[in-house]
Amino acid sequence: MLLATGAGTFLSALDGSVVNTILPVVARDFGAGVAPVQWVVTVYLLVVSGTLPGFGRMGDILGHGRVYLAGMGLFVAASLMCAAAFSLPLLVAGRALQGLGAPSAG
Fold first, then answer.
1. How far apart are CA 97 and CA 60, in angstroms?
2. Which of 13, 14, 50, 71 is deepest in the core (most CB within 10 A)?
3. What average pLDDT is seen over the chain?
4. How many CA atoms lie within 13 A of 66 on its CB side?
5. Which residues contact 88 (CB under 8 A, 6 or more apart)?
6. What secondary structure does DSSP assign to 13-62, as a single string?
7. Which pLDDT does position 32 carry in this prediction?
8. Whole-angstrom distance between the N-terminal and C-terminal Cα of the chain?
9. Rounded to two decimals, what is the model's pTM?
C-alpha cells in the first residue's frame, strides 16, 4: 500500500516539476507566448484543486483502492496524451485530464 501510494505521489510531483522546467521549450516549439503557455500549469492546478474533495468522497463511497487505480490509469493515459500532443490546446487538454486523475492517484 505504501509503495503504491508513494508511486502516485512521486509521479504527480515529478510531473509538476518537469512541466515547470520545460515551459520555455513548450513556448518555443508551439510558437506561443507566455500567457497561453501558462495554461499548461494553471489548468492542472485548477482541476486538481476543484476535484480533490469530490474524489475523497468518491473514495469513501466506492472504495479508496478502486478510485486510486482509476485515477492512476487516467493520469497515465493523460500523460501519454501530453507526450503525443502536437498543439498547445491538446497539451492543455491533456494537462486537464491529468489534473482529473491526480487527486485520486496521488
1. 22
2. 71
3. 88
4. 7
5. 26, 30, 32, 36, 37, 39, 40
6. HHHHHHHHHHHHHHHHHHT--HHHHHHHHHHHHHHHHHHHHHHHHHHHHH
7. 93
8. 12
9. 0.85
- Over residues 29-55, the pLDDT tens digits come to 999 998 999 999 999 999 988 998 898
Is residue 73 within 8 Å of 20, Cβ to Cβ? Answer: no
Residue 38: CB partners within 8 Å, gap ≥ 6?
23
| Cα–Cα distance measured from residue 1 to residue 5, given in angstroms and rounded to the nearest whole number | 6
Task: Give the position of cell 500523460.
Answer: 79
Q: Which domain holds residue 18?
A: 2-105
- How many CA atoms does the CB half-sphere of 71 hold within 13 Å? 30
Query: Rounded to whole angstroms, how far apart are CA atoms 106 and 84?
Result: 23
C-alpha cell at 3: 509503495
Number of domains in the chain: 1
The C-alpha cell 492542472 sits at 44
Choose among 64, 79, 59: nearest CA to 11: 79
